[in-house]
Design goal:
By secondary structure, the chain is an alpha/beta fold. It contains eight helices and 39 strands. The N and C termini lie far apart (96 Å). The structure holds uridine-diphosphate-N-acetylglucosamine and calcium ion. The site of uridine-diphosphate-N-acetylglucosamine has 27 residues, from strand 1, helix 3 and strand 10.
Length: 457
């Protein structure tokens, strides 16, 4: 059965007080609309249409990698029914599903039953029982319990306002039936809007079966109108994912201080201290320990590795048993092979650190290839940039680089060689032995310290 999804996103979003369209604001590292699209994608639809009102260029730019989206503008915005009318031409003969760009947490599992109902010819509405139904459309039933209407707050009488079952807005139905109903919705109501919810009464009139499905978790249907609501939903999402990972065998020192903004995989017996943020695609093996205050983005961390506090890791591959930090920065295309160590105030960019090699203190390693068992002394710098181009430094297995050395790339340091501390190395060095470039130490016995000039006070 073919599926056409329509995502409504034309609302003004005035209460966000933002120059950015509301649906581009981010929740757990992904835009609100991105969440709704992901839910739609999981249902393998034949077409997805987004109805927008403002910021069309910004929206198209944000989703340029999703060429399948059919964008339809709704201007002016005359209600949810009017919004769906703008997408009528995108409907294919099967099922139509209505989602919302500002309702990010709807799960495909909660939508699947609606699609089944619709495939059987019914109109399916996702509802919820809430403590405070203020502002929502109310689900009105007859004596037999059948849904007969959805009445908006502004059109509701006192008795209807007491109903606590509300309309989430999410619905599914046979697309051709919807197309027919759209032509019959009017705007004779308190807001002079074309209400999508009027299709309930049309279904009753046409004898189309109406199914209501209650959503399991209320946050799935929560819409975002303000930054406060955004922050609240962010905490809900983070709490849920923290609980999920604890259930999978991860120790979190404080689940309230652990944020995931992307897709992660975490192994068993991983211990994560407070204020750790995982962004993008992060994979963490078994028995990894992550200290407090670390940002880890698009990285892969092997079994038993230890990330000490205050590390900034992006685009790095850290193999098993490595040690990073405290206060280390690993930039994109860094690979640390097994047992390697990158320590305090060391920055590594686009470099390979071989097995059991170490750079423990105050170094910059960029565009470099280190073999195994290399030792980089404190303060060593690869001078990879000549002001115009980047050049490579190769350090062969077992080399020992003395402290405060500059390796002026392109340069190759031979196997098992030692570089004397304080050297500036501009030429390739042979294997073994010692290379150093230093001014010979002198002693000037008769030298006197400058004296303060007394005349000038
Ligand atoms: C709508 C429902 C209401 C339901 C509530 C759930 C109608 C008439 N009412 O209320 O029963 O309980 O959602 O939140 O459908 N939108 C457009 N174009 C428009 C108007 C709205 O695209 O012209 C989009 C908004 O961007 C938003 C969604 O539709 O994503 C809902 O709009 P909103 O004004 O928040 O909800 P109501 O119409 O008040
Ligand atoms: Ca409205």
């Amino acid at each position: 059965m073919s599926l056409s999804v329509i995502i409504l996103a034309a609302g003004m979003g005035t209460r966000m007080r933002s120059a950015t369209p509301k649906v581009l604001h981010e929740l757990a590292g992904r835009s609100l609309l991105g969440h709704a699209l992901a839910a739609a994608e999981a249902l393998a639809p034949d077409s997805v249409c987004v109805v927008y009102g403002h910021g069309g260029d910004q929206l198209r730019a944000a989703f340029k990698d999703r060429a399948y989206i059919k964008w339809r503008e709704q201007a002016p915005q005359l209600g949810t029914g009017h919004a769906v009318m703008q997408a009528r031409d995108t409907l294919s003969p099967g099922t139509a599903l209505i989602l919302y760009g500002d309702v990010p947490l709807i799960r495909p599992q909660s939508l699947a039953p609606l699609l089944q109902d619709a495939a059987a010819g019914a109109l399916a509405v996702l509802t919820a029982e809430v403590e405070d139904p203020t502002g929502y459309g109310r689900i009105v039933r007859d004596q037999t319990g059948s849904v007969i209407a959805i009445v908006e707050e502004k059109d509701a009488d006192a008795a209807t306002k007491k109903i606590r079952e509300i309309n989430s807005g999410i619905m599914a139905m046979p697309a051709p039936v919807l197309a027919g109903w759209l032509g019959r919705i009017d705007n004779k109501n308190a807001q002079a809007e074309y209400y999508l919810t009027d299709i309930i009464a049309l279904a009753v009139a046409d004898g189309v079966t109406i199914h209501s499905r209650k959503v399991a978790k209320i946050h799935e249907i929560k819409g975002i109108n303000t930054r406060r609501q955004l922050a609240e939903l962010e905490r809900t999402v983070q709490r849920e994912s923290a609980e999920y990972w604890m259930d999978q065998g991860v120790t979190l020192s404080d689940p309230a201080r652990f944020d995931i903004r992307g897709e992660v995989k975490i192994g068993r017996d991983v211990v994560i201290d407070v204020d750790v943020i995982l962004e993008g695609k992060v994979e963490i093996g078994d028995n990894v320990r992550i200290g407090p205050f670390c940002l880890i983005k698009d990285a892969k961390i092997g079994d038993g590795a230890e990330i000490h506090s205050h590390c900034h890791i992006e685009g790095a591959r850290i193999h098993a048993g490595c040690s990073v930090g405290p206060f280390a920065r690993l930039r994109p295309d860094t690979v640390m092979h097994e047992g390697a160590k990158v320590g305090n105030f060391v920055e590594v960019k686009k470099s390979v650190i071989g097995e059991h090699s170490k750079a423990n203190h105050l170094s910059y390693i960029g565009d470099a290839e280190l073999g195994r068992d290399v030792n980089i002394g404190a303060g060593t710098i690869t001078c990879n940039y000549d002001g115009a181009n980047k050049h490579k430094t190769v350090i062969e297995d077992g080399a020992f680089i003395g402290s405060d050395t500059q390796l002026v790339a392109p340069v190759r340091i031979g196997k098992d060689t030692t570089i004397g501390a304080g050297s500036t190395i501009t030429k390739d060095t042979p294997a073994g032995g010692l290379t150093l470039s230093r001014v010979k130490q002198q002693h000037v016995a008769e030298w006197k310290r400058p004296q303060k000039n007394k005349d000038k006070g």
